[in-house]
Amino acid sequence: MIECICIDDKNRPNEIPIDKWIKEGDKYHVIYTWFAHNQKELAFDLYEIQLTEKEYPYEHFLAKRFGFTQDQLLKLIQMIEECSKFNISMDELLKQTELTKS
Q1: Contact assessment for residue 76 and residue 33, using Cβ atoms and an 8 Å cutoff
Q2: End-to-end distance of the chain based on CA atoms, in angstroms?
Q3: How many angstroms separate the CA atoms of 32 and 47, rounded?
Q4: Using only C-alpha atoms, what is the Rg of the chain?
Q5: What secondary structure, in 3-state letters, does the chain show?
Q6: Residues spanned by the domain of 50
Q7: What is this structure's pTM?
Q8: What are 25-63's pLDDT values in tens digits?
Q9: Residues whose CB falls within 8 Å of the CB of residue 75, separated by 6 or more in sequence, listed in order
Q10: Is the predicted pLDDT of residue 99 greater than 80, yes or no?
Q11: φ and ψ at 96, to 5 degrees?
Q12: Nearest alpha carbon to residue 39 among 58, 18, 55
């Protein structure tokens, strides 16, 4: 699991109830990474919140909603490669996420 912090909880889709929505400033743990083809962006599954068919079409949280410490960001790169065999540069990852202090 990769620790992160929510940096953007704005614009909650109506399909996701408040109790299943992320909260700015709260810590979460990434357990899987995806490439969200519709948005053409990196997305995460979180340990703390499991989205189900009730929240469809929303299945994952976009990476841009989270910040990472540098050491967690390096772990995230490894996870991305393991989850999808998808190569991503540090520059590209930093465009889609934000570096935070521990």
Answers
A1: yes
A2: 16
A3: 9
A4: 13
A5: CEEEEECCCCCCCCCCCHHHCCCCCCEEEEEEEEEECCCCEEEEEECCCCCCHHHCCCCCEEHHHEEECHHHHHHHHHHHHHHHCCCCCHHHHHHHCEECCC
A6: 2-99
A7: 0.77
A8: 999 999 988 887 777 888 999 999 999 999 999 999 999
A9: 2
A10: no
A11: -100, -5
A12: 58
Tokens, residue 83:
């989850």
Q: Which two tokens stand for residue 11?
A: 């614009």
Polymer length in residues for the chain: 102
Tokens of 20: 């299943």
If one counts the domains in the chain, the total is 1
Residue listed under structure tokens 């960001």 = 73
